[in-house]
Specification:
The complex is a heterodimer of chains A (about 120) and B (about 110). With about 120 residues, chain A is mostly beta strands. Chain A is built from no helices and eleven strands. Chain A is globular and about 40 Å long. In chain B, strands 2, 4, 5, 9, 10 and 11 form a six-stranded mixed beta sheet that branches. Chain B has a five-stranded antiparallel beta sheet with strand order 1-3-8-7-6, with no helix packed on it. Classes of the chains: A mainly beta (about 120), B mainly beta (about 110).
Chain lengths: ~120, ~110
């Protein structure tokens, strides 16, 4: 299965600022997914990022708040903009298999605290 | 859209006992059902999955069963060990599409 490197692993940010999270995959993948996991909660999909096209956002998430870049088949970034304490969560990237593998792999996540 | 319900939210068992976690899904078109284990401070790790053309799959102490008619699937862990303690998530999707996750089950295995 694919190996994902996600960074930063954690950060504490001031409200009103922005944070960009990076996701690097060791193989080329068509789709990359960004999830949010609020404290003690399940995973909620933010958006799906395909290389060469605009990301597709789920209901309740907008591009102005969570801009995504997907410059190539192994890399993506998610920015959390104009942060508030309600944005404190774990943010995870995920890819489907990679190299013909089956199943979705997740990065280790970015634990964000907004103060 | 797809909706996945998961029960129980917490489960405590004695080491060596079995644990069962159940999920139901709403979209009959879903055809892929993975289970993830998430330990504290880590991302979810895929432990077993099943496709809709299979009724049961087993991997050592872990098994998953799928009932397409009833739209539910279950995770079975036998001979539980303290290191099985974690949060478990079920999910459902159309193959190659996004995963929709259940609400999670916190499993505690007491020595």
């Amino acid at each position: 299965s694919a190996v994902i490197s996600q960074k930063p692993s954690r950060d504490i940010c001031q409200r009103g600022t922005s944070l960009t999270i990076q996701c690097q995959v060791d193989s080329q993948v068509t789709m990359m997914f960004w999830y949010r996991q609020q404290p003690g909660q399940s995973l909620t999909l933010i958006a799906t990022a395909n290389q060469g096209s605009e990301a597709t956002y789920e209901s309740g998430f907008v591009i102005d708040k969570f801009p995504i870049s997907r410059p190539n088949l192994t890399f993506s970034t998610l920015t959390v903009s104009n942060m508030s304490p309600e944005d404190s969560s774990i943010y995870l990237c995920s890819v489907e298999g990679g190299q013909g593998s089956f199943g979705y792999t997740f990065g280790s996540g970015t634990r964000l605290t907004v103060v | 859209g797809e909706n996945v319900e998961q029960h129980p939210s917490t489960l405590s068992v004695q080491e060596g006992d079995s644990a069962v976690i159940k999920c139901t899904y709403s979209d009959s078109a879903s055809n892929y059902f993975p289970w993830y284990k998430q330990e504290l401070g880590k991302g979810p790790q895929l432990i077993i999955d099943i496709r809709s053309n299979v009724g049961e799959k087993k991997d050592q102490r872990i098994a998953v069963t799928l009932n397409k008619t009833a739209k539910h699937f279950s995770l079975h862990i036998t001979e539980t060990q303290p290191e099985d303690s974690a949060v478990y998530f079920c999910a459902a999707s159309l193959r190659t599409d996004k995963l929709i996750f259940g609400t999670g089950t916190r499993l505690q295995v007491f020595p």
